[in-house]
Amino acid sequence: MKRILKKNLNRTLRKNRSRARIFGTAEKPRLSVFRSNKYTYVQLIDDANSRTMAAASTKEIAKGKKVDLAKKLGTAIAEKAKKLGIKNAVLHRSSYAYHGRVKAVADGAREGGLKL
Q: How many structural domains are present in the chain?
């Protein structure tokens, strides 16, 4: 049990360390990524007004490999951002390393026309 608590504490510290440098505005929102074991979720967040501008998840996309779905997810959130008139965003990877699904979301968003 002690090992699990330490692991969660380290994850929280990593998340807070990355979040301390990132702030989203209406013109350049924060692209927040969350991974669960089954799905991946992304949100465009305006921290100045404390509101979520757009959100998407792999639940809405057809079946496939998680990394491939994450890339499609990035493209989907970029399309939603275009409809809102957003061209730039700041990637908030939380406590996750920049590889796998997180990298695929970022690459998909860039291919969709969102500048990260």
A: 1
